[in-house]
Specification:
With 288 residues, this protein is of the alpha/beta class. Helix content is 36%, strand content 18%. It is built from ten helices and nine strands. It has helices at 21-31, 59-63, 95-114, 166-173, 178-187, 192-203, 230-238, 241-246, 254-262, 274-287; strands at residues 10-17, 36-43, 68-74, 121-126, 129-131, 144-148, 161-165, 207-212, 217-219. It has a seven-stranded mixed sheet. The protein has a two-stranded antiparallel sheet with strand order 5-9. The longest helix has 20 residues, at 95-114.
Length: 288
């Protein structure tokens, strides 16, 4: 007899500010036709230019959903909580928000290790991530699928989505301690995507950029973002979060998003300061 195919046991790790967590889970139920458990870490507070205040929900209702096996909500961090980090961010988020993301995922990794269920694979997803269409096939054969964000240098790894083997995920995302996380963040010039790229290379984990931004998934902000596809910008301007998530087929133009994705300029690896990097992207898009 041939070797039996291993059963995939999937844990979904959702982390971030409260944002649109129930809407993300509703969409996930449509797009992920397999059994999975969801572990959720929410921050009560969100600040900065990307803060959302246009949607609210009861956390207890989220906790009561059958797929949610663990949920914790914590207050959130301030800049003063990280005096070790000298200098501002070289990414689109301030250092305390980046630290919050990594510390939340490390918390969920610790919970995973204590649960009786033995998981083989992990899906990391943000609390503002809208799934369109995707293909998860290669993950079962040992390839870790990550977000393909053309607005980043190719040496970096986007933190929006990760689907792959649990041991590989833990090797890259679990730093072991707050002190080690901060030290590596500083060595990565205070940039989370650069940090993840360094971790992937150091651990020799195999990744494949599979989820094209705007085509296979979108990050939903409370206001239009200059680098987003035209149909997404229009949807954010004109629709409620509920309508954006539940009726994406009415506004999402896949062909136009493919053209937007493919027309994005290749970002050189040396553009590490965030302001210079962002302005470079905007300038190249205007030249098209």
């Amino acid at each position: 007899m041939g070797k039996e195919r291993a059963v995939m046991r999937l844990a979904v790790l959702m982390s971030g500010p409260r944002r649109y967590a129930p809407l993300v889970l509703d969409r996930l139920r449509e797009k992920l036709p397999m059994d999975y458990a969801v572990l959720v870490h929410l921050w009560q507070m969100e600040d900065g230019a990307k803060a959302r205040d246009n949607y609210d929900f009861e956390v207890d209702a989220l906790r009561a959903r059958p797929e949610v096996t663990y949920l914790v909500e914590e207050p959130g961090y301030q800049r003063s909580d990280f005096p070790e980090i000298v200098g501002e961010s070289n990414s689109g988020s301030p250092p305390h928000n980046t630290m919050g993301m990594f510390l939340a995922i490390m918390h969920l990794c610790g919970v995973l290790r204590t649960q009786r269920e033995s998981y083989t694979h992990v899906l990391r997803i943000r609390t503002d991530c809208l799934l369109h269409d995707w293909d998860l096939g290669p993950a079962a054969s040992g390839v870790n699928l990550v977000a393909d964000n053309p607005g980043l240098p190719r040496a970096w790894i986007c933190d929006h989505l990760w689907f792959g083997r649990m041991r590989d995920f833990l090797a890259v995302w679990d730093f072991g301690s707050r002190e080690k996380l901060i030290a590596e963040y500083l060595r990565a010039r205070r940039n989370p995507e650069r940090l993840l790229g360094q971790r992937v290379r150091r651990t020799e984990v195999t990744v494949e950029r599979q989820f094209a931004r705007w085509v296979h998934y979108s990050i939903i902000y409370a206001r239009p973002m200059a680098l987003d596809s035209a149909c997404l910008q229009q949807a954010v301007r004109e629709r409620s979060p509920e309508s954006i998530f539940a009726h994406s087929e009415k506004w999402h133009d896949s062909a136009a998003c493919w053209a937007h994705y493919r027309g994005f300029p290749v970002v050189p690896d040396h553009l590490t300061p965030w302001n210079r990097f962002k302005q470079w992207c905007v300038d190249r898009l205007r030249e098209r």
